[in-house]
Design goal:
Chain lengths: 498, 333
Amino acid sequence: MVQNILEMKQITKVFSGFKAVDNVDFDLRKGEVHALLGGNGAGKTTLMKILAGVYRPENGSILIDGKQVHINSRSSSQEQGIAMIFQELSILPNLTVAGNLFLSREKKKDIRLDDKQMEKEAQTLLESLGMNLSPSQIVKDLSMGERQLIEIARAISSDAKIIVMDEPTTALTQDEQEKLFEIIRTLTSRGTAIIYVSHRMDEIFEISNRLTVLRDGKKIHTIPTKEASTTQIINMMIGDNELLYDTSEKSKKISKEAGPVLQVNNLSGQKFSNLSFDLFKGEILGIAGLLGSGRTEILRAISGIDPITSGAIQLNGEIVRIKSIHDAIRLGIIMVPEDRRNEGIIPGMSIKENVTLTNLPHLFPQGVIKFREEDRIAKQNIDHLNIRPGDPKKKVGKLSGGNAQKVVISRCLNLNPKILLLDEPTQGIDIVAKTELQMLFRQLTEQGMSIIVVSSELPELVSLADRTIVLYDGKVKKVLKDSEITDKNILYYATGGV
Amino acid sequence: MSLGVERQSINSKTNNKKALQIGKMLTSSQAIIFIGLIILAFVFSYLSPYFLTFSNFMNIIRQMAMIAIVAFGMTYVIIAGEIDLSVGSIIGITGMFAAITLQKGMDPILVISLSLVLGALIGLFNGMMVVKVRVTAFLATLVTMSVLRGLSLASSPGSAPITINSSTYVDLTTMNIGPIPVVLIYLAAILIMAHFTLNRTVFGRHIYATGGGPIAASLAGVNVGRVKIMVFVICGFLSAFSGVVLSGRLSAGLPDSGTGWELDAIAAVVLGGTKFSGGQGTVLGTLGGALIIGVLSNGLTLLGMTYAYQLMIKGAIIGLAVILDIWVRREEA
């Protein structure tokens, strides 16, 4: 008889008349990794937030070790030994690594904080997890991936019985991901149970014992991972009616006769130096590299966000000066940033207000907004990119990651850019929206747009990019073409292979 | 025949649409403000027979109009994610400036224009401190608040009031057009302009974007720094306008006039449902907030309440409204 450490029974959660979670049963065994899958709005995050005590369900019960428990706040959830690692990091940037690890359970000497003791214990913990971080370092200076690892370390250090990981690998490099998996295996061997929310099939097959698929708030199926196949899972996630786009076919319409659209010559800036590459009309150029390799910074420099220290940028053969975001926008270059929540969307504004924001001064040169015209554009965007819910007045902060990303991309496309720069465009997005977006990028290049995509997801580059530049330490290590673009090749050069 | 029917149905449709739009303009938190206002009015009219008279109503308008005008400027600043503590001192310094220059025989129209420019320049200074020097708005405007108040106190020997004898200047701020005080017309004009700018112009949209997500807005091409400087300029300008009206009503420049108004203005903005963290809010809500403060002061004075008790009751009601607003938002979320 397998022991269920957690049982959630007939859980229902209603948001203003809409059933986000509908009569869902979910159980978790001691020492297992249970993957939770589903598309946008399938109810995964809501279900997990109920477990975390963030939401209270309308109906249903939660049993831990066979005993019914009442979880009605974050702290009561923590008392039951449940730890959460959410997509939106809850790390405080101004504290040290140790300060974050011991947040809300600080060690004290009398009434003073015992920093020494905390740093000592943090050091042991970090070492046991194979993390090369100093406990006294301020978190602000760390990368997203490193922050994610601290979050994971924090959950582990609280001696949790159940750890929920929501898309834990999105900001991790391949190396860090391997490390995480090792940590997970150690934990499960000690009896800790893990709920693993992810969209990445390869990870799910590698790490999970069982998997549960949710769709439209309902549970579709729970099966042992061994008995499942990718197609079967995807069919469960998207239902029977929707089409799964095939992204394997790459565009052949790159026009090289006219010369490159964009030429970057010996460009230097923050974290990169003497970088040179070309971009052709209708091409998707991938940029790969580890965190800190300068892959984000090069996009930021070209789109006028960060200053360029030396080198030149040529558009259609002419040297251009890009000193501000406005310069770049004027030249038809715009970037979709990685940090969607802070740099992409304006959460308190509606879909309509977000998608028209960049283009507003061009649409209404007199400065007065015509609402009918604005509505028309927003509806066009919503239809074009299949943004759900399709209400232009909906606040973007309430949309799922995939739909929020579609809003950011719509905003950029409304400018009719010549060059679209994408930084981790499908990070944390479910597989349906992801295929939709990848399909869209293809379509855009067929219409003559040129795209540069930075991605740490190797399969994305493999399926999307016509050429891929591999960066290492701020320099171009290798340019890969067509069939050379493989996971292995990218990794080999990204880690410094010669 | 059929055409007529069709037109009718179209008409009724647009009417419905209009009603819906008005309904949407008032979010639920604003609805609470206006319901609160009505309840307050009921209570006071029950307790004091004088409260619901026309002349008292005009009295309330005269009192609250100046706060409301300052609060409109404050609404812009708060929506853009900043704060301006210097508004009360701008009222003081512009009043003194006007009184002194009028005494020296300067043309009243020129005095008014220069006073408004002075307010805008102080706002520009605040904005530059915040955007270019990167001082937190709270501290930057605390500095101007303190320095300007000192300046107005020093501008008159013994900090004594300076009388304004120019009848043009006084008339422009106190006259009635028919039964309506001219201040009400100023208030209405500024309200319409402020509302239109915020809701219908690209600049207004940029103010919301700046407060709602400064990084995202700047990456989307909004000139966040310029927007912030502009809202401080507007706030300074409107505070100066209030300062001119106040000195006209008093027929004097008082070095300490406008003291504490920054708090009333902020209270009006917050009562009006504008989010203190920026990105959301309306001038219509602020009008409601200013009306509540005006009705409260007026009603409590009519009931013979001393200033000390008025302060306590005012504070309690503002606290209550803010808590209620938080509850409503939580329900909506």
